[in-house]
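Hi support team,

I submitted a single chain yesterday and got back a structure, but I'm not sure I'm reading the token output correctly. Could someone confirm the output below corresponds to the sequence I sent? I've pasted both exactly as they appear in my results page.

Thanks,
R.
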Amino acid sequence: MTWFMTLFIVYFAKMRIRAFSLIILSVTGIVFSPQLFAQERDAVLQWQHMVPLSTPISGVVVKVNVKPGSHVEKGQALLQLDERARKEKVVALEADLKRAENNRDEARRELARTQDLYDRTLIAKHELQLAKIQSDDGQAQYEIAKSKLVKARMDLEYSTVRAPFNGWVVQRNVEVGQTVVSELQAAPLIVMVEEGRMLARFQVSSAELAKMNIGRKASVKVGNINYNGTIYQASLVPVTGTTDKYYVDVAIDVGDKLYRAGQAAKVAFES
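Hi R., thanks for writing in. Yes, this is the structure output for that exact sequence:
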């Protein structure tokens, strides 16, 4: 075997080894897999939508149907104020509205009769003007009575605090027998968080913040479950006690699974 043939065999063997190595790396996903070069960051979960609930009216609490940790459906009654006086007020104002409606209709009929007499020159114009004034006053009294009834019905509805969405009760600041005074400022009685909507919050430097565009896709891992998410918001002011750290929140939908604020999570972005 000549030296030329020996060199050719060695070169051919090296090429086969290199090709085999590339096949192995490709199968395992190591070659040219940008997803493996992800930046993983420590994060904590936060509720995306937390709402303190109260009522714009005052009264005595007669029923509280929930406690911290309760799962509630949209529209479910959370607490109830004593509504007896408000129900009676609605009944009285309904009667006032009916009376005002009858007076308005009678004033309209009288105006029509007076107009006919005036057209036949049987009465003076002054009498026609008086009939118009009475008709206008009847309409005004009707509108006032209707407005009072609408307000009373709204107050009756506000006697019950209801869940604005499906979610969880995280705080309860009210007990049966407590008097709620809401004329000056409505105090939060129950605090709710919306089911499914959570944020994974982590910190970045000002240099990294430029890459954290709203809507950028991310992967969030909680325990052994992965969720697809997007950047929801990035802070405009530094984290308290720092000069070059900013919060970034990634929004995820966890469905009906219950997580708690403060739980650890991992956020990853593709390189």
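A quick pointer for reading it: The chain is about 35% helix and 30% strand. Let us know if anything else looks off.

Best,
Support desk
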